[in-house]
């Protein structure tokens, strides 16, 4: 049985966030742990003792009120999610992390098989464009595969494997097939982007041999042109499919899946993205 780790912002919880989590967890019949980071790093630095001198008293009072209100919201949200899970018969463990959100999630991912994360997830006092710094950092450093999910996720009909012949893309394909063999068996497509006009899929025979163990009717497509543009365009037609990618944010990124391409796809794709790295 797989262990799924799902991230829900402790301050900005909405019950509909449980829909995708319940769907994926039910699909895998897995153990589920919901982590609710509080992002203590977001508390203003001037509340520390070293910054007390010269700070107006009303600042301190305001910060105290904000922290108290935040604590009340978190307490209510934890109880709300507990009740919502009970009403859905969604059995899970709840972890409330008070340290650095990114560091806590990365640590917990070490002991999980899959991490569920909203593609546009942010945290209190963080206001950056999608994908947020929080999402980028988690994707780059997570120690298990990450399924980046949209706010409104469709019923999954299949998988799109992005492949470029490199170890990283094959690593993601193998990881996905291990976790979601039923999806691969349902419908699977391999897309290879040729940026130099080479119409041969690298190591195609070995790739077909490997994937045939899961599905003997997989489609293989060669696209010619600029990788991120072609991938985005193709995935627009596959919003009800999960797409796989390898090596997000690492120094040895594949030629077609560089950081700008990754962020463009992450920002524009409407369907869920499965991202992992060795």
Brief account:
By secondary structure, the protein is an alpha/beta fold. 39% of the residues lie in helices and 20% in strands.
Describe the 3D structure.
With 278 residues, the chain is α/β, with parallel strands linked by helices. The chain folds into two domains: 3-42 and 71-149, 3-Layer(aba) Sandwich (Rossmann fold); 158-276, HUPs (Rossmann fold), CATH 3.40.50.620. 39% of the residues lie in helices and 20% in strands. The protein has nine helices and ten strands. The chain has helices at residues 17-28, 57-87, 101-109, 133-141, 167-179, 181-186, 204-211, 227-236, 259-268, and strands at residues 3-7, 31-37, 93-97, 114-118, 146-149, 158-163, 188-194, 219-224, 241-246, 273-276. A ten-stranded mixed sheet has the order 3-2-1-4-5-10-9-6-7-8, sandwiched between helices. Helix 7 (204-211) links the parallel strand 7 (188-194) and strand 8. Helix 3 runs parallel beside helix 4 (133-141) and helix 8 runs parallel beside helix 9 (259-268). Mean pLDDT is 84; it is low at 40-51, 124-128 and 251-259.
Number of domains: 2
CATH top level assignment of the largest domain: Alpha Beta
Fraction of residues in helix: 25-40%
Q: Would you identify the CATH H-level superfamily of the largest domain?
A: HUPs
Low-confidence stretches: 40-51, 124-128, 251-259
For the biggest sheet, the summary is: 10 strands, mixed
Structural class: alpha/beta
* Shape designation: elongated
Strand content: 15-25%
The CATH architecture of the largest domain: 3-Layer(aba) Sandwich
Question: Could you give the count of β-strands?
Answer: 10
Question: Could you tell me how far the N terminus lies from the C terminus, measured between alpha carbons in angstroms?
Answer: 22 Å
Instruction: Specify Rg, calculated over alpha carbons.
Output: 21 Å
| Mean pLDDT, all residues | 84
Oligomer status: single chain
Q: H/E order of the elements?
A: EHEHEHEHEEHHEHEHEHE
């Amino acid at each position: 049985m797989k262990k799924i780790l799902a991230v829900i912002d402790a301050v900005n919880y909405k019950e509909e966030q449980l829909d995708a989590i319940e769907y994926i967890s039910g699909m895998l019949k897995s153990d589920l742990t919901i982590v609710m980071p509080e992002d203590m790093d977001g508390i203003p630095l001037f509340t520390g003792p070293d910054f007390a001198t010269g700070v107006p008293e009303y600042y301190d009072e305001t910060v105290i009120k904000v922290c108290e209100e935040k604590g009340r919201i978190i307490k209510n949200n934890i109880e709300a999610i507990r009740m919502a899970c009970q009403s859905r018969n969604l059995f899970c463990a709840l972890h409330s992390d008070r340290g650095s959100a990114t560091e806590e999630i990365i640590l917990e991912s070490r002991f999980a098989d899959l991490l569920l994360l909203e593609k546009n997830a942010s945290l209190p006092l963080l206001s950056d464009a999608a994908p947020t710094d929080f999402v980028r950092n988690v994707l780059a450093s997570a120690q298990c595969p990450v399924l980046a999910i949209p706010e409104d996720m469709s019923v999954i009909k299949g998988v799109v494997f992005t492949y470029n012949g490199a170890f990283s893309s094959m690593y993601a394909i193998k990881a996905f097939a291990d976790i979601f063999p039923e999806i691969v068996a349902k419908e699977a497509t391999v897309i290879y982007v040729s940026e130099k006009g080479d119409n041969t899929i690298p190591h195609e025979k070995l790739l077909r041999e490997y994937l045939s163990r899961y599905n003997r009717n997989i489609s293989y497509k060669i696209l010619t042109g600029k990788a991120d543009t072609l991938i985005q365009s193709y995935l627009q037609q596959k919003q009800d499919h999960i797409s796989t990618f390898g090596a997000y944010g690492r120094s040895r990124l594949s030629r077609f899946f560089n950081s700008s391409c990754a962020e463009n796809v992450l920002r524009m794709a409407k369907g869920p993205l499965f991202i992992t790295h060795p």
